[in-house]
Design a protein that fits this description.
Helix content is 33%, strand content 18%. It is α/β, with parallel strands linked by helices. It has two domains: 277 residues, Alkaline Phosphatase, subunit A, CATH 3.40.720; 118 residues, 2-Layer Sandwich (Gyrase A, domain 2). The strands form six sheets. It has an eight-stranded mixed β-sheet with strand order 5-4-6-1-7-19-2-20, sandwiched between helices. The protein has a four-stranded antiparallel β-sheet with strand order 12-13-15-14. The structure holds zinc ion (ZN).
């Protein structure tokens, strides 16, 4: 039951409105929403589950009961944190401010810091919009949620993988929430853990949160499919097995939500697709060789860091941004352009797109980037500063995303089911920026900044 109708019920029960004069209950204009993200879920894994030999009854039930997209066209870059922030705001990375997974840190002083903090998001989120409408909100592990104004928040953060990370998660969660849930469910999953047991733990905590607090809007983020696809490739037996286990988590969450809110709408999303990879292009090698990056003298262990730079690589999976130290320096820009054009001319590097300046902004990508390169799978992009690492090398990774969103392999998933949502409808391809305003509208909330119109049912 929504907040509005609950309030009306309260007034009726308190005798403040004579029941006889109350109008017959109008169809509620809004519904509670449960939004589940399965990182890296390709739409075909659900739509073509039989063909791919996948046993995923809960996901197939959502597909059959509701409306779905044949594919969701993502953002630049098709990376986890920028994409999840688009899913929750309805705008491009250039406008929401989460430009990559990792923050810009050319001299490596931030100890692999990611964009964990909601204060980096420059526009209102669905959590904000729901709260402004008087709805209650919750979150389990959604990216970029530390410090977000969420009623029951278990944000995503880690530092080193040391047991102290658990204290950090506890300190940044809604006070009292983690002890309350751990008393029933045992220890919570460490922030750095991305495997199936971590998803199963977070799934149990989310179901417990739903049963205990009934948030009107809850986000839940599951990460093991992405993790396994990176390690073993998008179509591996291991990835299929993990998705089949995640399906059981989804089934439990949907059941818990429908028990708490029989009128709930369930949205199942993902952030990007996946492509198989077997090679890596290391732009930092070329920038070092061209004298655009200068390394420190090796320390006693032979390690070197960037000491000074004119142009650095800020890699984003299958693509890489190039940041210029002096964006207005025409001679520097020309020198870097010449280097990149030369690299692109060698087919072995598999650079298929090169954006510059305004073209990056127009694509909704990183405003700090002077240039942005997109690679063709099976090549991925890196910006490692490791002495002796060549321009191309064989990475341990078997699957990647982060390529420009035009690559059809990067399509992500959108399925939605519940009251008012047509059964069995195929929307074709949709824009990722349409998802947040659609969910806002279902909740009776507003996200005025959204850059694509809400989907109407
Ligand atoms: Zn992801």
């Amino acid at each position: 039951m929504g907040v509005k109708s609950a309030f009306l019920g309260l007034l009726l029960a308190a005798g403040m409105i004579p029941a006889a004069t109350a109008k017959p209950a109008a169809k509620p204009a809004h519904h509670p929403v449960l939004m589940i993200s399965i990182d890296g879920l390709r739409p075909g894994d659900v739509i073509e589950a039989d063909k791919r030999g996948l046993k995923i009854p809960a996901l197939r039930a959502l597909l059959a009961e509701g409306t779905h997209a044949a594919g969701v066209v993502g953002v630049l870059p098709t990376l986890t944190f920028p994409s999840h922030t688009t899913l929750i705001t309805g705008v491009d990375p250039a406008h929401h401010g989460v430009l990559n997974n990792v923050t810009f840190d050319p001299t490596a002083i931030n100890q692999d810091g990611w964009y964990w903090y909601a204060s980096d998001i420059k526009v209102p989120t669905l959590w904000d919009a729901a709260r402004a409408k008087g709805l209650t909100t919750g979150n389990v592990h959604w990216p970029v949620s530390v410090g977000a104004k969420i009623g029951w928040n278990l944000p995503q953060i880690w530092r080193t993988g040391h047991p102290d990370d658990a204290k950090l998660v506890a300190a940044l969660s809604t006070p009292g929430l983690l002890p309350e849930l751990e008393a029933k469910e045992g220890p919570y999953a460490p922030g750095k853990d991305e495997d199936l047991p971590a998803d199963q733990t977070r799934g149990r905590f989310a179901a417990r949160l739903i049963a205990a607090h009934h948030p009107d809007f809850l986000t839940v983020y599951l990460t093991a499919l992405d993790h396994t696809q990176h390690e073993t490739g998008p179509d591996s037996a291991q990835s299929h097995a993990v998705l089949e286990s995640i399906d059981a988590i989804v089934g439990n969450l949907v059941a818990a939500e429908r028990k708490a809110h029989p009128d709930a709408v369930i949205a199942l999303v993902s952030d990007h697709g996946f492509a198989a990879v077997d090679n890596a292009f290391n732009l930092s090698r070329a920038l070092i060789d061209a004298g655009l990056i200068r390394l420190s003298t090796p320390d006693q262990l032979g390690r070197q860091k960037i000491e000074s730079w004119d142009a650095v690589a800020w890699a984003s999976g299958g693509s890489v941004a190039v940041v210029l130290a002096r964006p207005d320096d025409a001679a520097l820009k020309a020198k870097v352009r010449e280097l990149l054009v030369g690299l692109k001319a060698d087919p072995a590097n598999r650079i298929i797109d090169m954006l510059e300046g305004d073209a990056i902004a127009k694509a909704g990508g990183n405003p700090q980037a002077g240039f942005y390169l997109n690679l063709a799978p099976p090549m991925l992009a890196t910006g490692y500063v490791a002495p002796g690492l060549p321009l191309r090398f064989v990475p341990p990774t078997k699957g990647m995303h982060g390529f420009f969103p035009a690559d059809p392999r990067m399509r992500s998933t959108f399925m939605i089911a519940g009251p008012g949502v047509p059964k069995g409808r195929d929307l074709g391809e949709i824009d990722m920026r349409a998802i947040a305003p659609t969910l806002a509208r279902i909740m009776g909330a507003r996200l005025d900044q959204a850059e694509a119109p809400a989907i109407t049912f």
